[in-house]
């Protein structure tokens, strides 16, 4: 892809205002999660299907195009995930394998990779992650465009902020655009608790069954949880964020809610997943997630 074209696409994306996306027809992707689906996904009949994530560090979005099939019959698989640098090599390998599994032919072509996120943070964590992603073996995929680090940076009173905090992918049209949204469920606190306790990247969506699978997740009691819950907002911001000056307004309340959840569930194997089975959700007729019993699956 010509560099000028990449720069033009990145500039257009950066200039777009963030769209507010309501819960109907939404699949929200949190930190260290990914989801893969295709335009044939039918969980929202006659409507659009969204994959979104809202975090401060880098995103990697991959879509598989099959050069041997027409767009209508090819897989058109799209994956969206949030890579935060915890294990970039393993995460990229897992993502690529998951997307390729949707191709029913060996001639699937190369993955098209779209990278969005990061900014010029003081600790240069975004730059480090950007280098990790860009230095991967590119023979298996090609970069369509990227909006990374300094390209996603704005400065205000000598403080750096990201321009885009969240992105959306419409898997029906392959449109990518900045987004924000009021709902981040289901099981927002549970999924956030998993991240805060150091879990690895995981796939949360079964596209063939059109179901969202949450868990089972297990962790040990979070250390000093009572201490952290007693701290004021500034202490939480300074100690539990990688970029305290650039966090969105809801960051502290989100962390507090997650810590309270960890305090309430120190042993999830007992209180949340005693049968060691995932929580399974399907879309109802209104396009909203609804938990289903395992005997109804």
UniProtKB/TrEMBL annotation:
MF GO annotations: protein-N-terminal asparagine amidohydrolase activity
Gene Ontology BP, a term: ubiquitin-dependent protein catabolic process
Any single GO CC term annotated in Swiss-Prot or TrEMBL for this entry: nucleus
InterPro entries assigned: NTAN1
Protein name: N-terminal asparagine amidase
């Amino acid at each position: 892809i010509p560099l000028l074209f990449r720069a033009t696409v990145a500039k257009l994306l950066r200039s777009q205002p963030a769209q507010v996306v309501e819960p109907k027809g939404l699949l929200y992707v949190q930190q260290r999660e990914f989801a893969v689906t295709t335009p044939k996904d039918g969980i929202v009949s006659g409507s659009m299907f969204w994959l979104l994530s809202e975090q401060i560090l880098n995103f990697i979005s991959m879509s598989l195009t099959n050069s041997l099939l027409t767009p209508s019959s090819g897989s058109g698989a799209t994956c969206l995930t949030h890579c935060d640098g915890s294990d970039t090599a393993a995460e990229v390998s897992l993502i690529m394998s998951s997307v390729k599994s949707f191709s029913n032919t060996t001639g699937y072509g190369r993955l098209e990779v779209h990278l969005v996120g990061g900014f010029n943070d003081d600790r240069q964590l975004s730059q480090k992650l950007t280098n990790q992603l860009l230095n991967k073996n590119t023979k298996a995929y090609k970069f369509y465009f990227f909006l990374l680090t300094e390209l996603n940076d704005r400065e205000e009173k000598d403080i750096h902020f990201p321009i885009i905090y969240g992105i959306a992918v419409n898997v029906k049209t392959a449109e990518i655009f900045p987004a924000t949204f009021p709902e981040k469920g289901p099981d927002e606190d549970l999924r956030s608790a998993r991240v805060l306790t150091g879990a690895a990247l995981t796939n949360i969506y079964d596209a063939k069954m059109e179901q969202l699978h949450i868990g089972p997740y297990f962790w040990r009691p979070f250390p000093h949880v009572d201490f952290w819950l007693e701290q004021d907002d500034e202490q939480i911001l300074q100690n539990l964020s990688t970029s305290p000056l650039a966090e969105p307004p809801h960051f502290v309340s989100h962390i507090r809610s997650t810590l309270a959840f960890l305090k309430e569930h120190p042993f999830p194997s007992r209180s949340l997943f005693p049968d060691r089975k995932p929580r399974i959700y399907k879309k109802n007729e209104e396009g909203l997630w609804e938990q289903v019993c395992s005997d109804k699956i």
